[in-house]
Amino acid sequence: MTVFLPGSTIGFFGGGQLGRMAAMAARSMGYDVHVLDPDAHCPARALASQTITAPWGDVDAAARLAVGVDVVTMEIEKIPLAALEAAGRHAPLRPAPGVLHVVQDRARQKEWLRNHGFPLGPFRVVRSADDTVAAAREFGACIVKAASGGYDGRGQARVFHLEEAAPAWTSIGAPVCVAEQFLDLSAELSVMVARSPNGEMRAYPPSRNHHTDGVLSWSVIPGGFDDVETRRATEIACGIAEQLGVIGLLAVELFLVEDGSLSVNELAPRPHNSYHHSERACVTSQFEQLVRAVCGLPLGDTDVVRPAAIYNLLGDLWSGAEAPDFAGVLALPGVRLHLYGKGEARAGRKMGHLSACGAGADTALERVVDAYRRLSLSTGGV
Ligand code: ATP
Ligand code: MG
Question: Of the residues 211, 265, 314, which should be mutated to test ligand 1's pocket, given the most ligand atoms within 8 Å of the CB?
Fold first, then answer.
């Protein structure tokens, strides 16, 4: 197996916050970093010795990225296959295009999971308003999601009454959607798995996640799940990573349903927002683990050495009369600030996060929630 040692160069499709934090880890370990992103001012630019500014589907640019580096990975799954394949002709692409092909279409992803025996809530692939109405009739409350291109709850509509089904289809405006039964959740969790080219795998302990309006608000690790839930969630996540043949990272988002069962929500073959706390909590952060996995180095320990939690900072925080009082929250015990270097603070845009550690997961979470509350009050708005 080829190992890319420090001194090698890693190419990233995507220079958003995930690419930036992964690039920081790569830099810390002595790697050089090149980035391809459509935005010339992308957050990872500050870490990259070369930035290629090009659309995701630009096959020549993708090939150029790969020619200049030893190995290519990604922070985003929506790269068109032709661009991935163009890159893969010049350098190992980890994970491989086949993984992205399954994951980047929600309908295909769900069908793959079902065909491989992984647990899912009831769903239907819908291609018209009539299909959507039929799904709503079958499921009662449901959530309709565009098959491709959605994130942070975008490209989705919730249907609680039958008459909302056709407008939901129209409002999304995608040719193919997935309608899922709206599940009664007792918790949301995720499991991050790393897998190296020789098949070695390491899973992180499950993270407990809280979403507001479809967007992650906070995550905490350890997530406080019992042994049976933890074992089952880990088994599911490792099973998926293995059967998909992922090299790199795979985040598996799961629902713990009211009846006690676990079902897979969705997959992300890259670093994930719900493991930003791994930088504070775990022996090896998800970002360093990505570098190790794609470079063929031994994977790092995933144990939690100190409970930690994060709270996302969305662009809305900057819309108040006052600037957020970062100095004030940094005076709080255990709290740290992470900003991604994004210029424009648009509503809903992920600008950064707060993190906090504590002697226990409850303390870490209380600290970060309190810090966030103070920060939002300091703006005099929202
Ligand atoms: P992201 O990219 O941020 O993970 P997304 O746009 O891909 O989000 P989903 O993960 O599909 O969206 O859904 C976002 C959130 O909406 C979930 O984390 C959950 O809180 C809620 N949700 C989604 N599907 C269901 C469902 N079938 N039943 C109940 N709640 C759901
Ligand atoms: Mg999600």
Answer: 265
User: Judging by DSSP bridges, how do beta strands 248-257 and 262-268 pair with one another?
Assistant: antiparallel
- DSSP code of 106? H
Residue 338 host element (H or E): strand 335-339
CA–CA gap between residue 260 and residue 4 (Å, rounded)? 43
Amino acid identity, position 214:
G
- Rounded to 5°, the CA angle 358-349-379 comes to 65
Which pTM was predicted? 0.97
Ligand 1 pocket check for 120: Cβ under 6 Å: no
Preceding peptide of 95 cis, ω within 30°:
yes
- pLDDT tens profile 203-245: 999 999 999 999 999 999 999 999 999 999 999 999 999 999 9
Residue nearest to atom 8 of ligand 1 (CA): 152
CB 190 within 8 A of CB 264: no
* 142, 211, 217, 276, best to mutate for ligand 1 pocket (most atoms within 8 Å of CB): 211
Minimal CA–CA distance to 253: which of 239, 241, 267? 267
Taking the C-alpha atoms of residue 369 and residue 219, their distance in angstroms, rounded to an integer, is: 10
